[in-house]
């Protein structure tokens, strides 16, 4: 059975992260964790006691990961860069607020039969025009700001760049989707080999963490290995339950347990101990003790 690497970006809720680690602890897994630099009162030391079968690696580099900024991509690439040293069959990027919905043995069996499919989510056949503007022009205000002067400056800088098009400059077709994925060792190596290109194209853009991988893939041979049910904003393409209709995204509750377990998906996002701890405990028991 081939080994998998789980890459976790965590920024709060140590109890939820502990449960996620327990659910991923399996003899054919290694777990890589990035703890946000802003999480100053947690160093991850306690996480090691929840790992009995896997190897756990907590990244020494801690980035201040902020919404919409290049720090998101930097963190993802750093996790991939660390894990690819050991070469796994699949690499799964997860948030610290996600959980698996199946025991690891079942998840491995699903991916063993996948024939090297790249589980990457795409919103639509073509990128939305507003999103394209965000990532095809230089932007020095990566995060949304409530300051009026920054809003004015952002729109002014965008307007002055009416001739700038990073897609055309680098000969790339841009694409967009969710930043959570399950991808093969060959694709991970391709990402790392192109990290300088990723930086050139996306360092001064907004929300490119949902664009950089999709863009690399559709401009490469890997576009022929994309998961089915795709280019239609379907999270089955990454074997995830994610609900944007009831939230941003919706936080699952105890009442959603049967829906999640019956979904046939491998993962779900998102959960919050402070909103509903019962659903988290039930999924943990299902995954570990069924």
TrEMBL record:
Keywords: Disulfide bond, Endoplasmic reticulum, Glycoprotein, Glycosyltransferase, Golgi apparatus, Membrane, Metal-binding, Signal-anchor, Transferase, Transmembrane, Transmembrane helix. GO terms for biological process: chondroitin sulfate proteoglycan biosynthetic process; heparan sulfate proteoglycan biosynthetic process. InterPro entries: Glyco_trans_14 (IPR003406), XYLT (IPR043538). Pfam families: Branch. One of its GO terms (cellular component) is membrane. GO terms for molecular function: metal ion binding; protein xylosyltransferase activity. PANTHER family: XYLOSYLTRANSFERASE OXT (PTHR46025:SF3). It comes from the Bacteria. It is a single-pass type II membrane protein. It is found in: Endoplasmic reticulum membrane; Golgi apparatus membrane. This is Peptide O-xylosyltransferase.
